[in-house]
Each structure stands twice: as C-alpha cells, then as structure tokens.
Amino acid sequence: MHVRLLSFPLRITTTAMAPPGKFHYLRQEKIMHTNTKPTSSAQVPLGINHLVLNVRDIDESHDFWSNLLGFRHVGTFRPTTPGSTPPMRFYSGQRDGKLHHHDIGLYQPPGWQAGDGQLLNHIAIEYASRTAWLAQIDFLTAHGVKLHRRVERAATHSIHLFDPNGVEIELLFELPREQWEADIDAALNFRIEKPVTG
Q1: Sign of the four-CA dihedral 123, 3, 89, 69
Q2: Which of 55, 152, 63, 153 is nearest to 105 (CA)?
Q3: Domain annotation covers residue 5
Q4: Looking at the DSSP assignment, which residues form a beta bridge with residue 104?
Q5: Nearest CA to 27 among 172, 198, 197, 195?
Q6: 3-state DSSP of 140-186
Q7: Coil, strand, or helix at residue 138?
Q8: Which domain holds residue 69?
Q9: What are the 10-residue block averages of pLDDT along the chain, 198 residues in total?
Q10: Domain count along the chain
C-alpha cells in the first residue's frame, strides 16, 4: 500500500482503502491560499502536456491508438463508485526510454457519437513550477477568468477553465517523476478534488 505525501499539510477528512500497490484516496476540507501577488502578465507555459479526446467506442479507439499508432496503454481510470464515471484510458509515447503519465487520454461520454459535439475533451498546458502555476492562477483570477475545477493528482496539480470558444483548458504543473513513475496507473487514479477558491 502506498500513501503519497504532497508538498503541503493536508487535513484528511476521509480515506478509502486502496488495494496493495495502489494509492489511498484522500479528501481535504480546505484549499491552501496561494499567497502570491497577481503578476502583471501571464506566465509563459512549457507547452502542451497532454490531450484528452471524446470517443464513441473506447475499445475501438484503444486498438487504434495502441496497436496501430504504437502508444503504450499506461492506465485506466477506475471510479471509486462503480458506474459513476464513463470509461477513460491513458496512453503514453516514449522519450529517452521513459513513459509519461499520459500524452493522450480517451474518454467515452455516455451516448456520445462523433459529430454530436466536440471531439476534444480538453487540452492540458504545463507550467514549469508550482510557483509559476499559482502565479498564473492569480493572474487569471485578477483578470476575471472563471475557474471551475481544481484537482490534485499524484502526477499533476491542475485547475480547469474554458476558452472563449468553450474548449476546456487544464492548467497544470507536474510533480517530480520519481513520485509517480513506478506505478503510472495508480498515479492516474489518485486524486483530490479541491475548492477552486480558498
């Protein structure tokens, strides 16, 4: 059994037992304040971290992305309540002999068909550090951008927003590789949903 320690104090209110080799799920009562001053300009991101696509048939898409394009299947999201979340799988390319937590995610929304809506579920943009990420959040908040979801995972911490066209954007910073690379699947299934503002 693994418990991942995050870089700040947690007030744990509930835990769910995880199978051996997997993470505990933690819930936190209160978000930590950023305590940073809003900057006068946006932080420059490192670039695109990953994409998540809506698909009509996750098995057919799995075959395409893994068997035809060569991406490695590194994880499958397992909801804590069976049937509460539609199927989602994660895939990685390989750089310098190492896998990423995911480059592509596939998500099968209930009843979704290609042409019914947006193919792109969301795009994730990476910042170089937690400090840069928090500064960007403060900058966006100071400019009236509505943030709608904040999540801490074992591999990333992120906040979500929508662009003017309705495209969901995830802004994240990545935790050190040694904290998640030994069990990417477990890292993808670990998450703490947090309040957007504190």
Answers
A1: positive
A2: 55
A3: no
A4: 51, 91
A5: 195
A6: HHHCCCCEEEEEEECCEEEEEEECCCCCEEEEEEECCHHHCHHHHHH
A7: helix
A8: 44-194
A9: 34 35 37 52 89 90 86 88 78 87 89 71 92 93 92 95 85 94 92 84
A10: 1
For residue 52, what is the domain's CATH number?
3.10.180.10
If one counts every other C-beta atom within 10 angstroms of the C-beta of residue 188, the result is 25
Q: Which two tokens stand for residue 85?
A: 């979340």
Asked whether residue 14 is domain-assigned, the answer is no
- In the chain, the amino acid numbered 122 is H
CA nearest 52: which of 128, 107, 111?
A: 107
**Three-state SS for 130?**
helix
Residue 64 located in a structural domain: yes
Q: Quick check: 26 and 12 in contact, CB under 8 A?
A: yes
Amino acid making up residue 25: Y
pTM above 0.70, yes or no: no
In a domain, 140, yes or no: yes
Q: Which residue do the tokens 């104090």 mark? A: 9
Length of the chain equals 198
Which residues are bridge partners to 73 per DSSP?
Answer: 91
Select from 118, 107, 95 the least CA-distant residue to 65.
Answer: 107
